[in-house]
Structures are given as C-alpha cells and as structure tokens.
Amino acid sequence: MTSMEFDSLRERLIREYAAEHVAAGNWTPQTAEDRAAEETDRLLPQGVNTPGVRILMAETPDGDPVGFLWLALERQPGAGGGAWIYDIGILPERRGRGFGRALLAAAESEAAAHGVDSVSLNVFGSNLIARNLYESAGYGISSMQLQKKLR
Fold first, then answer.
1. Looking at residue 151, what DSSP letter applies?
2. In Å, how far are 15, 69, 83, 121 from 79, measured between CA atoms?
3. What is the b/e burial string over 25-56, where b = at least 16 CB atoms within 10 angstroms of the residue's CB?
4. What is the mean pLDDT of each run of 10 residues along the chain (151 residues)?
5. Contact 103, 121 (CB under 8 A)
C-alpha cells in the first residue's frame, strides 16, 4: 500500500469505525469521528510505515484493488500477545468471492513468518457475515461481551 492509498484508507477507517461504535452504543455521534481518528492515529502514527504493522491489499487478477487487511504483528508490543487484525474490508460488490479468506490466510502467513504463534481479532456481534467467515477459517471465541439494551 502506498502512502496515498493509505490516506484514502485512513478516512474510510475512521468513518466506519466511528459508525460501528455509534451503532453499538459505545460512542455518541457527536464524538465518534474524533475518537476514531485519535485511536487510528495512535495505532498508526507513521501510517503505512508504522513499525510492526502490515496493511495487506487484495486485488483481482487484473490488479484492481478490492480490499485490505490491517495487521499488527504484536497487539501490545513486548507483551507477547500474538498478532492482531484491526480491520478487514472488502468492497461490497466483491464480497463472497474468497478475497476475505485470502487476506486472512496472507495475514496468518505474515504473522507466522515473523515468529508469531497466534492471530486474534474482534468482531461486532451483529456482523454475522464476518463472524461466519472467521469461524469457517478456524477462529474461535476467546472472550465474549454481552449487552442488553434497555431502551
């Protein structure tokens, strides 16, 4: 991924991450984009060149970009907690064609090549399509948060 491609991706990451937290009831719409930008910039202080981070791209055989995966080789550097997938995204019109699965496999290979023995991720409970992908790729629940809306 180039720096120019990253700038476009950063905007999308912030917008989508903010929307997910608003939908989950974690953040207010008024503060969500600022909070998402702060978290994104803290985790990617040097953008695509942040040490220990890989942003993998999925492309069609013709070279058209269709998705990405953001991988940190250590979720908490120095803590030995394994790699962490912060985000994965496939263009809606390209979903269901194996690109997400290919990105997961590439992330696992990248982590293994760096001596990492596990890869973890978080998925919002309402994202059934992503949950099905992760489970079918061998990911299992390692912790779970439950919530009941009272309003």
1. -
2. 30, 22, 11, 16
3. eebeeeebbebbbebbeeebeebbeeeebbbb
4. 86 92 92 96 93 93 92 73 90 92 96 92 86 92 80 78
5. no
DSSP line for 58-124: EE-TT--EEEEEEEES-SSTTS---EEEEEEEE-GGGTTSSHHHHHHHHHHHHHHHTT---EEE---
Q: Strand order in 83-90's β-sheet?
A: 53-59, 65-72, 83-90, 119-121
Owner of token pair 């969500």 = 32
- Looking at residue 15, what is its pLDDT? 94
Strands 119-121 and 53-59: unpaired
The burial of 151, by beta-carbon neighbours within 10 Å (0-12 exposed, 13-18 middle, 19 or more buried), is given as exposed
The pLDDT score that the predictor gives to residue 78 is 57
- Look up tokens 């250590």; give the residue: 74
- Widest Cα–Cα separation across the chain: 50
- Predicted confidence at residue 77, as pLDDT, reads 58
- Residue reference for tokens 């989508």: 16
